[in-house]
Amino acid sequence: MTMTDQHVPQNLPKRLQHFVAGEFVDSLDGATFDVLDVDRAVASARKAFDEGPWPRMLPRERARVLNRIADIVESRDERLAEWESFDSGLPITQALGQARRAAENFRFFADLIVAQADDTYKVPGKQVNYVNRKPKGVAGLITPWNTPFMLESWKLAPALASGCTVVLKPAEFTPLSASLWPEIFREAGVPDGVFNLVNGIGEEAGDALVKHEDVQLISFTGESATGQLIFANAAPTLKALSMELGGKSPAVVFADADLDAAIDSTVFGVFSLNGERCTAGSRILVERPIYDEFVRRYVERAKNIKVGDPHDPATEVGALVHPEHYAKVTGYIEIGKTEAKLAAGGGRPEGLESGNYVQPTVFVDVPPTARIFQEEIFGPVVAITPFDSDEEALELANDVKYGLAAYVWTSDLERAHNFGQRIDAGMVWLNSHNVRDLRTPFGGVKASGLGHEGGYRSLDFYSDQQAMHISL
Ligand code: NAD
Q1: What is the ipTM of this complex?
Q2: 117 vs 133: CA distance, rounded Å
Q3: Which segments constitute the Aldehyde dehydrogenase domain (predicted)?
């Protein structure tokens, strides 16, 4: 396959523009144009916040708009999937359904904002105190390139539900799907200025948003190193920060696990979404008595995964997002060859001479000191390591700087709970994967994040809670 064979979706925008104060606009000219574009977008969001109806609408009225957004988003599933697959290299079958997930985020926060209750405290005979919840202000939303539209919705929905106005800065690698938002919001009746979009690179547009004194909060999803930089850059203006960062999540498979289910899940866990998934189970720890069988069956499965044109419905692993990312992932594969035993993959698939294609790659007997065990690769590459006891498994599971997700496979439920609770991870799946209840906390510990979103935690992040005290 060559680049000229690439399927090009219809109706692609001819050029990407910013969206500010209800209008599509081009970049301003000048050396610091990204900063000026961000200024313009923040001013629009600020005006809509200070003077517009959105923050003052009844929750029920905002919920109606959010439900309309959800319906429109869902009706664009096919177009979104085509664009997302074209822009990011995601297999088309996995890009389909992203719109449904995005729509669910809007429906969920529409329900939640209507059901929102706030606390009241009574000191008998003396005082009544209550919480006056208010939207925080202008929300800066900075998002990554993996499943970009869906991840944007995860921030847009609670920010808008809470009554904030927003400036979205999508990832520069995948700006295409974000260009669908302006029309969707317009059609749903979101007032001008409530939603603003600035395209630009992280170090300029993202940075300007982070440092802007009129932005009250930043919700960021991306790499841990970027998160650290944003944390420092936001300090002078004391912003609220929510950080969903990188991961190197373990899948721990005990000898008493349902092996068929564990293999299915751990194959899916690292090779779906091209391995470009924050919660990927990229380290598989397997108890010694089943290690050889697990490895044999896993390797066989990995070798049969179909890599190819993202637009082909038979494709299971598509093309990585960008040549830069391709170089990073293949660089790790070369490092892995010096650190552990290569059991499957390890390079470019036969017949795919150009494009960012990588074979599903399995390293076995990987020591915990290996870089491929410790560092986030964010591609279709997995490290498998044996263990002999629960204690050793726990040590291995926790022996990385990250703590986003973990997966535990065992038929002993007592062990599953006890072991799962001791893992340093924000989210643990027992004998399951990838099922998310939107009410639960989402986020990581250690280098994987700061703060939690999900359910009322998201609404709390996007609002201020003012304490009102009344003497009786
Ligand atoms: P990235 O950190 O390179 O970029 C993310 C966003 O930050 C982009 O929009 C980028 O333009 C912007 N950015 C970059 N530098 C910036 C700066 N100095 N100031 C402000 N903004 C800046 O991440 P990526 O490569 O786009 O995404 C992949 C990473 O995201 C992986 O580490 C993955 O694990 C993580 N991720 C985490 C979650 C989660 O929920 N924890 C979800 C998806 C992805």
Answers
A1: 0.97
A2: 10
A3: 36-466
